[in-house]
């Protein structure tokens, strides 16, 4: 997605440890018109897939999930994160280990908002090692719902997230794919339409 790649080049900052800081428009401050364009692009890619619900993870997944949901005319459920492990029987729960933060979080979605009748689109802001996406997939499976695919705003293609998700048989649509972060420069893998 060209407009997103331009935004990343203009306002993103490459941190030395292979991390792209995009607080200017995605992870802290949010650019609403860009977010609307992102939602339209996700909707276009999944328009014919009979999506009934979008699932994301708080907090940075919510904005792109919301704009995609508006376009597709479905509701959004964001999984909640918490550190303590109090199992309750009214929620689906999965463990997500973050390599970046070196901690495990529990993510959960109420059984009330995800059921076996749902055909789900999972959306998240970043794809790195894929742990968050795999956790969301697990919640969908626990609910007995089916998954149409995963929409990612920014994929770090030099990490293993995509290959793990594809190995699980899931369609991955990333709007920007980063081949390399080096010397303060972002190199994109390919230029996709839109
Ligand atoms: P994974 O889920 O793909 O395995 O990734 P990882 O554990 O490494 O990511 C942990 C958090 O760091 C996630 O945010 C993820 O979106 C974010 N992240 C990973 N790599 C980058 C990067 O290069 N740049 C930025 N900006 N974020 C990155 P989170 O903790 O869920 O935070 P939030 O949703 O509250 O923003
Ligand atoms: Na994030
Ligand atoms: Na995230």
From TrEMBL:
Residues 38-161 form the Phosphoribosyltransferase domain. Gene3D superfamilies: 3.40.50.2020. It catalyses: XMP + diphosphate = xanthine + 5-phospho-alpha-D-ribose 1-diphosphate. Pathway: Purine metabolism; XMP biosynthesis via salvage pathway; XMP from xanthine: step 1/1. Its EC number is 2.4.2.22. The keyword Transferase applies. Converts the preformed base xanthine, a product of nucleic acid breakdown, to xanthosine 5'-monophosphate (XMP), so it can be reused for RNA or DNA synthesis. Belongs to the purine/pyrimidine phosphoribosyltransferase family. Xpt subfamily. This is Xanthine phosphoribosyltransferase.
